[in-house]
Glycosyltransferase, group 2 family protein (Loigolactobacillus rennini DSM 20253), 314 residues
Amino acid sequence: MQQLISIVVPVYNEGDGLTATFKVLRRFSHRLTQYQFEFIFVNDGSQDNSATLIEQQAKQDSRFKLINFSRNFGHQLAITAGLRYAGGQAVAVMDADLQDPPAVIGHMLKKWEAGYDVIYGQRERRFGETWFKRTSAKLFYRVLQHITTTNIPVDTGDFRLMDQKVVRELNRLGEPDPFVRGLVSWVGFKQTAVLYQRQERKNGVSKYPLKKMVALAMAGITSFSTLPLKLAYWTGGVAIVTGLIGFNVMLFRHSWQTNSLIICSSFFLSGIILVNLGLLGSYVGRIFNAARQRPRYIIASTQGFNQLIAQSHN
Ligand code: UDP
Ligand code: MG
């Protein structure tokens, strides 16, 4: 029997390019006749004719499906919804603008057949994007990798292929403001990369203005690191030490000028306040971790247990 592969495509005002995307996807599916495909387009509250175009395509070809959001909920939630409706044994996520070429999904499928559960597209080069976008993205992924314990690979977006068992785990998570690429890393299983060259956008403009980019970066940092909450510890520590050094210098010189005394005292006292804020931050971080309600662990497989016991725990 042919295996079903789902391809999830978030769409926001992509009317200019959708016809080309449909065509490329149809051609792609003709080349891979060993699989059956379903193309899940999630219309994220587009104000243009995107929804109508997808509806028309779905009428002509039942492999094309539409999920229509009531308004713009954002790229990450569009992907999240698409994953929930995806019934394939493997599920790919790609942009509607053909910046991530579907041909790469062919390479991903080979790795999936070889036993990998998550195959993410890692950008080797990016064409047609501004210097600011390339540099800020590069910097962001490197900073994120330093401040979190989850191993989120650098230079990867949401372009990836996942086994259904990974998707099932993702579907169990109910985070209100998900950072999907981070959650996929967090879920685990056998993950690997496929290098690719990110193409220029063929039609329309980027739907990620600076404001959305910053919001995505903040979702990434705040959902995978509590370090910012604890930063006050370090600044507080530095302030206390600076204050103490000042006091020692005064002691050594036997000069107790009022000005110096006030400056050193304020360093010392604000240091104490900051350290306490950091302490509070640690507790808030723990509450935050608990509030996200991620499962505490995920079991990939077990051995030697009675089948029924193993199932009832899953
Ligand atoms: N997108 C979306 N909702 C949004 C913004 C973007 O569904 O609020 C979709 C968009 O149509 C595209 C994908 O997410 O398919 C990535 O967006 P875009 O190509 O604008 O981002 P970039 O490639 O410039 O980072
Ligand atoms: Mg794009």
The CA atoms of residues 143 and 209 lie 21 Å apart. The first strand starts at residue 3 and ends at 11. The pocket of magnesium ion (ligand 2) is lined by residues 95, 97, 99, 201, 206 (CB under 6 Å). The chain has a mean pLDDT of 89.
